[in-house]
Amino acid sequence: MSRILRCGRFSLSLDRPLIMGVVNVTPDSFSDGGLFFDPAQAIAHGRRLIDDGADILDIGGESTRPGSEPVPLSEERRRVLPVIEALSVHNVPLAIDTRKPELMRDALSAGASMVNDTNALGIAGALEAVAATDAAVCLMHMRGDPKTMQDAPTYEDVVRDVRGFLCDRVAAAESAGVARQRIVVDPGFGFGKTLEHNLALLRGLGVFSDLGAALMAGLSRKSMLGRLTGRGVEERVHASVAAALVAVKNGAHIVRVHDVAATRDALAVWNAVNRES
Ligand code: HH2
């Protein structure tokens, strides 16, 4: 039976891997900070990612890189809402990448169809903000908060601990009224994890498949790839594409990437080999 992600007015088939293209409307994101801070640049970038083959766009106005400071609601709103309004005319679902319930509501009213929350709807009011709509939601695992998350993170067993957390958050979302077909889970590569933790999660992605939710992986340009290749952030396209393919092979339904065109080409090969005859 075909699996579907229900995402507002969209129904996305999970029979082939989907590409989520990143639009960071921020001055300080780790990989592209400042490039798309101007709304016109962000809108043009979003259109380019759609042309390149993005299935979903993820629009964010707050960097969650290690050590980052929170952005006030009014500023985050000012950054992302004009971009969402402008891009919502295209026939591609938009995700709002935020932890703030108020902004979730505003972004969904402005045309977004998905909430991508690095805090897994953990802030008071977030579950209700999503449950009251037909939007999809991505529940991501993070250890601590961005400011301190890389300060010597420890786990008893990282794969089991992250799976347990996501299982609890899926149950919380479901009991608040969010149907399973609207839920995506994400182990949160780089969010309170060492290189070894990230590699264990990438190897063990299969254990998330029985949560009954779609699975997302965001490895693009992350520092673990810098550690493995010795390359700076703008030189991690090849490693990012390789990581996306490993994630898909190990069960990811959605890959969150900055380099949509390169990922699309790699997945075209993947899809051709894996197409049922
Ligand atoms: N990674 C980042 C931000 N949001 N959301 C999900 N679901 N999964 C991720 O892995 C993920 C995410 C970090 O990447 P980026 O947005 O490019 O950087 P920054 O947080 O510095 O803006």
Q: Which properties best describe this structure?
A:
277 residues, alpha/beta, 8-stranded parallel barrel, two-stranded antiparallel sheet, 9 helices, globular, binds 6-hydroxymethylpterin-diphosphate
The coarse overall form would be: globular
- Give the C-alpha Rg: 17 Å
Number of helices: 9
**How much of the sequence is in beta strands?**
15-25%
In helices, the fraction of residues equals 25-40%
Q: What string gives the helices and strands in order?
A: EEEHEHEHEHEHEHEHHEH
What does this structure look like?
It is built from 9 helices and 10 strands. It has helices at 39-52, 73-87, 101-109, 126-131, 158-176, 195-203, 223-229, 237-249, 260-274, and strands at residues 4-7, 10-13, 18-24, 56-60, 94-97, 114-117, 136-140, 183-186, 214-217, 254-257. Helix 1 (39-52) packs across helix 2, helix 2 (73-87) runs parallel beside helix 3 and helix 8 runs parallel beside helix 9. The protein is globular and about 40 Å long. The structure holds 6-hydroxymethylpterin-diphosphate (HH2). Residues 22, 24, 26, 29-31, 60, 63-65, 97, 116, 118, 138, 140, 186, 188-189, 216, 218, 256 line the site of 6-hydroxymethylpterin-diphosphate. 6-hydroxymethylpterin-diphosphate (HH2) binds at residues 22, 24, 26, 29-31, 60, 63-65, 97, 116, 118, 138, 140, 186, 188-189, 216, 218, 256.
